[in-house]
Every structure is written in structure tokens, then in C-alpha cells.
Amino acid sequence: MRTRRMIHVVATAAAASSLLVACSGAGGSSSSGGGGGKSINVLMVGNPQMEDIAKLTKDTFTKDTGIKVNFTVLPENELRDKVTQDVATQAGQYDVATIGAYEVPIWEKNGWLHELSSYADKDASFDKADLLKPMVTSLSGSDGKLYALPFYGESSFLMYNKDVMEAKGIKVPERPTWQQIADIAAKVDGAEPGMRGICLRGLAGWGELGASLTTVVNTYGGTWFTKDWKAQVNSPEFKKAANFYVDLVRKHGEAGAAQAGFTECLNAMSQKKVAMWYDATSAAGSLEDPNSSKIAGRVGYAYAPTAETKSSGWLWSWAWAMPKTTKNADAASKFMLWASSKEYEKTVGEKLGWSRIPAGKRASTYELPEYQKAAASFGDITLKSIEQADPADPGLQPRPTVGVQYVAIPEFQDLGTKVTQEISAAIAGKTSVDKALNDGQKLAEEVAKNYQ
Predict the structure, then answer these.
(1) 3 touches 108 (CB < 8 A)
(2) Are 196 and 255 in contact (CB under 8 A)?
(3) What sign results for the dihedral spanned by CA atoms 408, 413, 414, 415?
(4) Pairing state between β 39-45 and 68-74
(5) Closest Cα partner for 316 from 146, 139, 175?
(6) pTM value?
(7) What SS3 state is found at 129?
(8) Which InterPro entries does the annotation name (predicted)?
């Protein structure tokens, strides 16, 4: 039943997604034996860490193994459509794909993924025991085995321009409330020519706007569903959180907020177009890179803002998964083990800079002297944010599934995207939050019928 529902969910994305692959080397994989001459196709999200591995692979992994890696890199929303389409329909176009904590348990139950514990256990240098427990738990199947290897892990926190805050005489609390952040955003809006007070994701998508918004909903006492599957999208708590979020980004948020996701906010913050940004802890490495960021060395960090809960940061891992349809499991596993290894982290540090390590997945990363120095301003708060995130109990009431910023059911990919399309429209001034949530409630009630 779930497999059929998931395929139905991705069917509407198939036509659009099929046009996005052409220029990155995707296509049928080589059928030659493992090692030299082998070619694999890797589909991944276009975040900075993935752009780094695309640059480094040829002169490191391919040089050492003879395995050619053809990368297809897509924006987050397009990646989610494409990978779901490929895996759910068993198209077999890719040998490796980046997915996350949401997909792994669902896809494992559907039998779509190779288990990876056996590969990790055979490679002593991989050191599976070094992986952070929250990452292992979120990427394991019902049998306790890993079905994806973490590339990097993250929670969420607040990032701010220290120069702006100092000029305004503002001290950002280490554990701020959302109301405190809204007040600060009003004070620093326009602090420099063209600068807005805060950047918040407004781009529709369950993993874009939906991720950040749901953490706000959680801490305001809301939830998508009660434990017994009663839809709560238009509940007073959900409405309060959504109205707060939309009002804040409309009054003091970035230009073009309805089209701004992670990538756009990263650019806005690093180019001094906004004074604050609430988003993934993994963004810090890019903000501290002087080659691409105008505020490197001048960024402050605070825990995810709260309202009614003690903490509110999300928990996520972009991870490497191997669809069962691959005919190149040996070569694909070699790539994934390397891409999640201590060796690869060292390569990034030495060639690109230690702040750019894909961190948040290994305990040993935070013991590296070079990384400790490069990540002095954000390393500790990142690790603590990951450790404090509680997917089993992220709000004020019991949940029907685990997950901080998502509901771990196949239908949420479609539900979350449709609801955030309406909320994004509210950010753009084309509809009201109340109408968006009332319409979303009807959609959520239909989903709930599958589980009641």
C-alpha cells in the first residue's frame, strides 16, 4: 500500500524532472568489473559540500581507484523529485543518491535500498563506531542496519553579523526566543544600505520552507498531526506560528523571500544583505570561508530560537544511499565509504580549508586540532545542537512518527510541499495564512485517513 502511494506521489513530478539530468553525465552505468574502468552515476543536492566533492573526486578517488564518477547536481526541490522518481519507479538511472533521514526508514521498508552496514563493517578504516549516534539512528532501517552513510549532519541555529550587532549595541542571547529575534530584526533592518533584518526560507517545498517553519510550529506548541492522527494544520498553535513566521519575513526578511531557500539565504548572509539568518548548522563552514564570504570571522552563532519548548533545532543528515537497482554495487560502495570517511574530511581540510569539512557526522572531527581552530566559533554549538535535537519528542505533545521538521510518512512529501506552496504565496502577499492553513487542513485530513 505505501509503495503504491509513494509512486502516485512522485508521478506528477516525473515529467518535469526528466528534463533536468541532461548535461551532468547521467545515463547507463558501465557494466565492466569493479575497479579500473568502472563508471558510476551519482545524483546529489547542490549544496556547498556536494559542490566540493564534485571538484575533488577526479584527482583523489578516481585517481586511486580508477572509478569514474558522473555527478548530476540539482537544487534541493528538484533533487527530491528526481531521486524519488528514480528510486520509487526502479528506473535504475543512478548508482548513488543523496537522501536524508526522512526517506531512509520509509524506503527501507519498501525494499528500495541496499543495506550498507555490511560494507562499512568490512572496512576497518571507515570506523563505523566513530559515527555520531543521532546520525546512525536516523539512517538505520527497522533491522538496525545502516541504509545510508552520512555525508554531513546538521541541526539548525541562528547566525548573525557581529559587526552590525556591535554597532547597534545589541547582545544576541545564546538561547534566544523567537520574539527576541523578531525584536532584533526590527532594530537591525536597514543597519547598512540594502540590508534586511533576517533571512528565513520562503521557497515552497517540504524540505525548504517546510523545514524551518515546522521547527517554529513545534516550539509554538503546534504539530502536523496528533498521536492518533488528527490533522492540526489549522489549529490555533499552528496558525500562531505560521502567522509569526510570515509576518517576520514580510516585515524584515530578505528581498524576494518567496523564492529564497537555503542557497539564496546563504548568499544573502555571506554578502551582507541580511543581518541574521536562521538555518542549518552546516552553513557555518561556508560563512567562515574568506574566499566566498564577506563576513568570514565576524559571524556570531546562537541556538535555534524557541517559544514554548527548551530547544527547537532540527535534525538532518544528507547521506549517500544505494538503490537496489544498481548493477555497480561494489564500485558504488567504494565511493560512498570514501565520501563519508575520515580520509575525505582530511582531503577537504588540506585542499579547500578546514572550515569546509562536511562535519556533524563523526566524533573524531571535533577532536582534529585544525578543525577545532577553524570551527572555534561554531563547532561546539553545532555538535550540542545535534545532540539536543529530539526527533521522538520535538514539541509539547506526543507525535505519531519520529522527526523534528517532517512527518515520517510517504505522503508528507506531497502534503508538506502543497501546504508550503500556499504559505509561500502568503509571504508573497497573494493569499492569507489562514486560508493557506485551512486549505492545508483539508489535505492533511485526507492523509490522516490512511492511518486512523
Answers:
(1) no
(2) yes
(3) positive
(4) parallel
(5) 139
(6) 0.89
(7) helix
(8) Bact_solute-bd_prot1 (IPR050490), SBP (IPR006059)
Rounded Cα distance between 244 and 423, Å, is: 12
Cell of 154: 546538521
CB 146 within 8 A of CB 399: no
> Which amino acid does the sequence have at 317?
S
* φ/ψ (deg, to 5) at 44: -145, 160
Convert the pLDDT of each residue in 225-251 to its tens digit: 999 999 999 999 999 999 999 999 999
Please name the amino acid found at residue 266: L
Query: And the C-alpha cell for 290?
Result: 574568506
Q: Rounded to the nearest 5°, which phi and psi values hold at 226? A: -75, 175
Nearest to 402 by CA among 227, 263, 244, 265: 227
Nine-digit cell at 262?
Answer: 537555503
| Segment 140-192, tens digit of pLDDT | 999 999 999 999 999 999 999 999 999 999 999 999 999 999 999 999 999 99
Rounded Cα–Cα distance for residues 279 and 259 (Å):
16
Contact 305, 181 (CB under 8 A): yes
C-alpha cell at position 388: 539536543
Candidates 57, 51, 80, 107; CA nearest to 116 is 107
